[in-house]
């Protein structure tokens, strides 16, 4: 029989405890890595949505800049899903919702509508509301779009 000091090694219980501890650590590591990757994906999708919505609102703001309020603007009253404005330089701009895409057409660039949204987003609603002038306040147009369930709004006032 060997002396107790020469008997080195692990018992079966110790090995099982180490395996369980190692499994718990690895499982926690895998869960943390998955949550980080999933969070990154969701953040990227949210950033894309925000960028797309801001781009659309800037494009509509551009369309409403230098609009001649004496020439027909649609909607002339109430709310409409389509917009037609004429700028002081004579350029007529149309904006419409076609399915899940917002499209824009300029009279100086041709007569076909071109999408200003990408396949990354889905537009479920687009509304233009005419703001009637009151007293010295100018007329305006509010554009509201629902993109992937998020509301985007812009109001532009027309100066004479």
From TrEMBL:
InterPro entries with a match to the protein in the record: N_methyl_site
Keywords: Membrane, Transmembrane, Transmembrane helix
Pfam families according to UniProt: N_methyl
Ranges annotated as spanning the membrane: 15-37
Name of the protein described by the UniProt record: Uncharacterized protein
Domain of life: Bacteria
């Amino acid at each position: 029989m060997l002396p107790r000091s020469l008997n080195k090694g692990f018992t079966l219980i110790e090995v099982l405890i180490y395996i369980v501890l190692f499994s718990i650590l690895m499982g926690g590591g895998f869960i943390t890595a998955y949550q980080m990757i999933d969070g990154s994906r969701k953040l990227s999708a949210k950033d894309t949505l925000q960028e797309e919505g801001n781009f659309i609102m800037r494009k509509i703001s551009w369309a409403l800049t230098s609009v001649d309020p004496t020439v027909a603007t649609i909607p002339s009253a109430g709310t409409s899903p389509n917009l037609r404005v004429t700028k002081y330089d004579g350029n007529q701009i149309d904006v419409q919702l076609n399915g899940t895409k917002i499209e824009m057409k300029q009279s100086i660039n041709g007569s076909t509508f071109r999408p200003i949204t990408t396949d990354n987003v889905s537009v479920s609603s687009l509304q233009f509301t005419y703001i009637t002038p009151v007293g010295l306040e100018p007329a305006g147009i509010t554009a509201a779009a629902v993109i992937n369930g998020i509301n985007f709004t812009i109001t532009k006032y027309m100066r004479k």
